Amino acid sequence: MQSFSIDPTVVLFMITVINSLANLLLWMRKPGQDATAEIAKFKTSAAEADGVLKGRLDVLEERVSHMPTSEELANLKGEMHGLSAQLVSLANQMTPFRQSLDRVETFLLNERTK
C-alpha cells in the first residue's frame, strides 16, 4: 500500500484559504444584517408614526364632521341679514315711543319743580 502524505505547507495554505473565505462570507453577511436591523427599526418607527397620524386624522375628521357646510353658512348669513333688518325696523319703531317718553319725562320734571 502506498502511503498518502500531505505537505504541511499545503494544509496550512488550505486552512488559510478556508479561513479567508469564511471571513469574506461573514464580512459580506454583516452589511445584510445591519441593513435588516435598520429596516426593522424603520418599520417600527413607521408603524409608530402611522399610529400617530391615524390618531391625528381621527381627531381632524371628528372636528370637520361638526363644522357647518357652505350651504348651512349661507343660510345662517341670510338669517343674520334678516335679523339685522328686523333690528333696524324695531329701532325705527321705538323712536316715537322714545320721543313720547322724553316728553313725559320732561313734563314730570318741570311739574315737580313748580
Secondary structure class reads mainly alpha
Largest sheet: none
- Would you list the SSEs in sequence order as H and E? HH
Which term fits the overall shape? rod-shaped
Low-confidence stretches: none
Beta-strand portion reads under 5%
**Average pLDDT rating:** 85
Give me the count of strands.
0
Oligomer: single chain
Per DSSP, the total helix count is: 2
Q: What Rg, in angstroms, do the CA atoms define?
A: 47 Å
Tally of distinct domains: 2
Helix content: over 70%
Terminus-to-terminus distance: 160 Å
Layout of SSEs?
Blueprint: H1 8-65, H2 70-113
What descriptors fit this protein?
2 domains, rod-shaped
Please describe what this structure looks like.
- This protein is an all-alpha fold and 114 residues long.
- The protein folds into two domains: 1-67; 69-114.
- The chain has two helices and no strands.
- The longest helix has 58 residues, at 8-65.
- The radius of gyration is 47 Å and the shape is rod-shaped.
